[in-house]
């Protein structure tokens, strides 16, 4: 990492360390901030909404489909559509602990900025890396965006300006295709497919049926979906179902059989096999452990 980028991200970390609890100001900027002093342990299921995620101190592990990476300050994570992710903190920083920020990616703003930019972007010729690399310009504007937490009176004037510049700088990185996938105006296929799978999770989807619903060929849908999410549509659906089933068991108290049926599994052994492959244990055992952990955190 070059010195200018490191300085900018250092400024950003200082702000988050001071302002992590200022949720009201953060929300005005479309930010979610987190500071942890210890490593909770284990991976948790989350559904990331369209966003830019960064780690400013410490390291975390993110599993998206078959892509399993540990990353930190030197990289960033773009979520162009709702994405089922397994993630967890794996290391803390001696000074700050673990610091992270997630900035909401506004599809309308992406469309606005992309439309105004010169049309020099090209489709990626190979596999798109799951994580992006900072540029000095992107790190600088992101630090300035976070810096508004220290001057909340300037958010109405400077917030929209910095947000546009952040999108601009993201579109100048190798992650531009993934950022553009956040908007229906660029390519409606993936956002429409994600909405269908999310809203009709329990239906017996096939790739052919999903492709027909979004008016695309199976090959086109698979290629664009994997570029945006790092998963095939059927991998996405499986991870989505397993995550939602886990939520039902842990938060609602559903039985494994009831949760499996609710998210579209027709076979209990099939559900248990898929669940064990992702979470490393049976649904019932994992849910019991997670509920116990929640009780411990609640004090």
Low-pLDDT parts are none
* Rg calc: 20 Å
Structural class by sheet pairing and helices = alpha+beta
DSSP summary: helix tally: 13
Shape: globular
CATH class of the largest domain: Mainly Beta
Instruction: Please report the distance between the alpha carbons of the first and last residues.
Output: 41 Å
The total domain count is 3
- CATH topology category name of the largest domain: Jelly Rolls
The SSE order reads HHEEEEEEEEHEHHHHHHHHHH
Fold and architecture overview:
There is one protein chain. With 299 residues, this protein is of the alpha+beta class. It has helices at 3-19, 23-28, 107-116, 136-147, 155-171, 176-180, 189-199, 207-213, 218-229, 233-252, 256-262, 268-279, 283-298, and strands at residues 31-36, 44-48, 51-57, 59-64, 67-71, 75-79, 83-91, 98-104, 131-133. The protein folds into 3 domains: 3-180, Sandwich (Jelly Rolls), CATH 2.60.120; 189-234; 240-298. The protein is built from 13 helices and 9 strands. The protein is globular. The termini are far apart. The model has no long low-confidence stretch (mean pLDDT 91).
Question: What topology emerges from the helices and strands here?
Answer:
Blueprint: H1 3-19, H2 23-28, E1 31-36, E2 44-48, E3 51-57, E4 59-64, E5 67-71, E6 75-79, E7 83-91, E8 98-104, H3 107-116, E9 131-133, H4 136-147, H5 155-171, H6 176-180, H7 189-199, H8 207-213, H9 218-229, H10 233-252, H11 256-262, H12 268-279, H13 283-298
Antiparallel strand pairs: 1-8, 2-7, 3-6, 3-8, 4-5, 4-7, 6-9
In short:
This protein has 299 residues and is an alpha+beta fold. It is 51% helix and 18% strand. It folds into three domains: 3-180, Jelly Rolls (Sandwich); 189-234; 240-298.
